[in-house]
Write a structure and sequence with these properties.
mainly alpha
Length: about 550
Amino acid sequence: MNGKSVERNHKKSAYLYLVLIGLCFLVYANSLNNSFLPIDDIPAIIENPQISHPLNFWADPSSLLNSFIYNIVKFNVIPYHLVNIILHSLVTILVFHFLCLFFKAEPSFLSAALFAVHPIHTEAVTWISGKPYIILTFSTLLTYLLYYRATKHDNVAKKSQRLNYALSLGIFSYFMIRNYSFYFLFPFFIILSDITFNRWKKNWRLWIPFLFLAILRVILAKEIIQGRIIFVLAYAVGRTQAWINPTIPFIYSIFSHLWLLLWPARLTFFHEPIVFYPLAIWVGFIALAIFACFLPYIFKKAKRIFLGIGMFVLFLAPTYSPLPVAFIVAERYAYLTSISLSILAAFCYERYSEKPDGKKRIWILALFIFLIAAYGVRTVFRNRDWKDNLRFSRVALYVSSNNPQAHNNMGAIYLEEGNIVKAIEEFNIAIKLKPDFAQAYNDRGTAYQTQGNLVQAILDYNKATEINPRYVEAYYNRGLAYHNQGNLNQAIFEYTKAIQLNLNYAEAYSPKLAKAYNNRGAAYQTQDNLNQALADYNQALKLN
């Protein structure tokens, strides 16, 4: 290829990048002014006293970025959303490069454009706290592209191959420090890819470091995984066991995420409760069994489709794990796995648009443009659902009327507005739907405490800590109730328990930790224990 051809190709690629980036900004521009949401955004940014210290988050790329943004603009919400859109744009470009490994430029570009505008991605892009799933996908694609270049064996210098492999392994090592939940599956993806394209004989030794690091990370993350299981059991409706049969969740997860990808109409943050209809499960099982019979044929005749299927099933694995480490259905989980849909789209476009019949190509191109436009419009409207907590909660309640978390969120809004009666009604519905819902008991206790009904408030806090013995906020709130009753010794005990939980369990961190020190200091001061009061006040100031 001569110099002019190379230059033309570079210019063409630059134009394609600009179009993809433009699409990302076009469909997500109306999300820039969306508010911080109480679901993770406010605790992680607004109420996080550590947010101004970036070095505290060196192993957590998402929090590290939030910390950098905070140090520049404080609580101006636009840059937080802007960073998410920029990250999504970068991922879209990587998706384009990934597809170009297996398809020609035109189908790869159109399928990447489909990825750019797909409405199922709003949960990861529009929600500030969805950033980890964008970063996870970015790191997965970047690591794979480097690994692919390192193992391509097509007139590539050995030095360049070694460098690409080292970069691939280095990036994997860094992101494995934190993103073990889905990212630890990456070694199995490169194994799947190498087997699919018959490169395993040359590459199998290169899998070993990736597998070793993934297994080591899972072993070292034992306590974190246990904490995650407790969290999922606390919020997932209908899950009460720490060990479950993965067959039914597998069928439900596969078909639910597939349907959301193909028909993203009823999108919601809360897909619980999961209802397993026996007939639907049997139909799904039979459908998957029949489809499995065709997998050898697909492997032989359409290897790229086989890779896409494997990618979809593999990276959803945590949703049907025997240990409940993830919710069965969540749109943010589909951010990475939606690349499988792009693979299918590129395959179909390349297969059927290159027929001699030129009209067929025009119709297929028109269909792609229509899908990109339709998905883009749906994304713009879905962004509005995340505008603020009130709209978010109302839409979630409309779509997920039987979800206890949705009712609990509405209760929290009523409580914030001062409508205590309506708040308690919503908390009661949440508890009825999920009798072991610790957060609903805690929040209802807060409502009772606001009413001045301290006895009922303490009973609810007792129930919350009985369900979840590591529920920091419930201990703090119970301490506050005892404090208001004048029972200072018991209040100090509860504040101390909340503080100890924060020190013992990283995942139990509560933004009320500084308040716990402050209030315990006030209790000590009332008891004339001024030395201890000063120590607690100093600690509260140090934290916040």
